[in-house]
Amino acid sequence: MNIVVCIKQVPDTTEVRLDPKTGTLIREGVPSIINPDDKSGLEAALMLKDETDAHVTVLTMGPPQAEKALLEALSMGADEGILLTDRAFAGADTWATSSTLAAAIKNLDYDLIIAGRQAIDGDTAQVGPQIAEHLKIPQVSYVANLEKDGNSLILKRVFEDGYHKVKVKMPCLITTLSEMNSPRYMSVKGIFDANREKEIKKWTLEDIDVNREHIGLKGSPTKVKKSFTKGAKAAGEKFEVEPSEAAQIIVNKLKEKHVI
Amino acid sequence: MDFRLPNEHKMLRQMFTEFTEKEVKPLAEEVDEKEMFPVETVKKLAKYGFMGIPFPKEYGGQGGDNLAYAMAVEELSKSCATTGVIVSAHTSLCATPIYEFGTEEQKQKYLIPLAKGDNLGAFGLTEPNAGTDAAGQQTKAELVGDYYILNGSKIFITNAGYADVYIIMAMTDKSKGVKGISAFIVEKDFEGFSVGKKEAKMGIKGSATCELIFENCKVPKENLLGKIGQGFKIAMKTLDGGRIGIAAQALGISQGAIDETVSYVKERKQFGRAISKFQNTQFELADMQTKTEAARLLVYSAARAKDNKERYSDKAAMAKLFTAETAMEVTTKAVQLHGGYGYTREYPVERMMRDAKITEIYEGTSEVQKMVIAGSLLR
Amino acid sequence: MNISEYKGVYVFVEQREGEIQKVSLELLGKARELADDINEKVIAVVLGHDIKNKLNELIYFGADEILYTDSDVLNVYTTEPYTKVISNIINEYKPEIFLFGATSIGRDLAPRISARIYTGLTADCTSLEIDKENNNNLLMTRPAFGGNIMATIVCPDHRPQMSTVRPGVMKICERDENRLGKINEYKIDISQDSLNIEVLEIVKEKKEKINIEEANVLVSGGRGIGKPENFKTLKGLANLLEGQISASRAVVDAGWLERDHQVGQTGKTVRPNIYIACGISGAIQHIAGMEESDYIIAINKDSTAPIFETADLGIVGDINKIIPMVIDEVAATKEDK
Lengths: 260, 379, 337
Fold this sequence. Notes:
The complex is a heterotrimer of chains A (260), B (379) and C (337). By secondary structure, chain A is an alpha/beta fold. Chain A has helices at residues 36-52, 67-76, 94-106, 127-135, 188-196, 243-256, and strands spanning 2-6, 9-11, 17-18, 25-26, 32-34, 55-61, 80-84, 112-116, 139-149, 152-159, 162-169, 172-176, 200-203, 223-228, 237-239. Helices cover 28% and strands 30% of the residues of chain A. In chain A, the strands form 3 sheets. In chain A, strands 11-10-9-12-8-1-6-7-13 form a 9-stranded mixed beta sheet, sandwiched between helices. The longest helix of chain A has 17 residues, at 36-52. The model of chain A has no long low-confidence stretch (mean pLDDT 91). Helices cover 28% and strands 27% of the residues of chain C.
């Protein structure tokens, strides 16, 4: 069984701080991590590898530094890493990102493609389903549990008000939720093997078969018109009074807001 | 020495830190308070490769080096010195002598399960009347047929009771003095071997420290480690390496205490401002970190020397001497900077201070390290 | 692509077990506003089985036309049949704008469609406006980095302009039974398309697991409430205010409340009308998850807690004294009515 896991290197937003004066993000010194939903997807793939001897390839698109995320994935136990990196890919929205990743995946043998549901820096949840469409294979998103059943997968697909248990034939693509498992740590041996023996392939535009109109900024239907931080809210009122008076202030405000 | 860490070691540090934060730190207080040997943690350590870092893969190891091993003990000890010494005693004092002096059969039989972490290891040299003067061994081993028969006892043995395999020094020929000492591999289930009383200690309270008792203990003669009469040399070589582990433990304790103090002084307010704003706090912290960083370089340089098969016994002794004394000084200052809270069990620095003390004593007291260092100078 | 051929504001109406979802009414409200702005129609697209009796409601809530496809295959949502129907509708009808709810259905369906027909899709929008000076481009604004940064996205050269819209943000129109509209069936053969995925079991989770993102009032607890039992008091207030309880990460990590109640960076982003933060210090990760609430009341013992910088009303004091008094007052007021 061949599994391709798509991962994204993201800033660890739990470490992101705001500059109190300007209200902008301080990105300096913020460590990069494997996106949590993607890491759970990788863990799901590695669990399948433990059970069934699957071959796990990790794929990422990004700047050369994204190699670090692949090394981490290899150190957790993935077999092969591919870094898609080319200036021509830069500035891509989800459409162009997915068309680039799909083109790379076409170079590989795959039964199952796993992507995290969404990345913590963008929160779009779009790239997974869009890759599936480019490859014309079925997708199941929001997956919280996975079992292999012959050539099919039995999946728990989560909704706001419950879940579906679905069966899907491979090849297919799933997007995984970070709740589905706790990813393993890298192992000592894994780190040595990844650094000494495993190879990370670097693919550029030359290595994939993709319409050049469908990549990068040019291939992106959406454009960022502007980005901004929300202006700081005017400071509210603050009272330091007896509990009974405080309760009265709160209740009056609730009345004013028509909550009661 | 190359001062830049290779990428693999940077990644190892990241992994050791993550593992320690999530698996070791949450238990550290309980391990100390309840004098609890962290059995489940040791299983997890085994799973991720902590128990066999410097050994080749063909012997069940991780294919790593002593620098990586020292870093692992350092990171674990930042949060829990007990966990640090379990790994250190197992790796340096039991698996390493088998790897360095064992026969191929002994490596197959004992090193592989030790390096994989399926078995835990320990080392027995110290006796009630043979501490720093290790040559005064009274435990005897006598060859009778296919077995050595061991009689005597050992004290202060780390990992005792939980270990499956013990490296034991015993006198095979009293007339030859230190050259009459031999080393043996003893399994926990060998007839005539038992674990005696457990010590109540000041620090590293989760670490099991017990007496070992040998009453006509039958050790198959193929379990002689190295040659007959080579035991003292094996013990001294083993302790040379062990000192890197203990130095790494002391280093971790130091850094852990600094990290705790840094976050405390930023939070704690006195006279209307965080105590981190006071120059005394700043200068104390600066001294603490500077010494700790110097200690780190000594530890890494000793580990690298061992990796490069250079002579390292003086380097290891210097690393242990300096790091242990630094740990004691830094943790004492950490408690002081925490004020009254530092003296309570609400904050971990009092535990770190208690844990730090042992690093000046075991695997050779600071005075022994000075003897080794001076001996190497005046050769 | 001739952009001027594309007309109308389309809304994908989500039904689950035949029930129209609230987010779809919110979308109709927003679509109505946008369509009026550019003098176009609002078209509601409904996929399901035996749904005809629900369609008039959509007209009352702002739709000018309904386009529906009825098939047992569409009864329960699966990706491919839905994608096929809507992609075909897009190709035939050429909508200018197509809105979806940013739900676990909309966020599965919309990207698949956008990839199939090659148009842009903006996720999880919290604000939509028309840029009349530029080709009637839709200005789609969405938060990123957990709400710390807002980005306005456009899709200038492709149509339709597609967006998923965050539930609970857009206003629902007044229901008006006098509104009139057309209802048309869109017929399409979809019997073969669902075969790649088989739904084996459908499990509804008890309503207990309420979605804090949909609550109008949230009473939220942090470490400062002292002990897990005190959530009972907060729950009492939440019940009186017809709201829900939620929590900071610290107490969820401590096991005081389940994870689906967690507000913040690693939890949920909420924007209720009233957010009452009890004993929450206000770490930035928490603020990111609740700062868009309409009105924030913070109660905390520590007058320097950062939560007061975000709160509209700050009370320095002991929650465990104040909240029971608030409960008594509210209960008394309610009885008076």
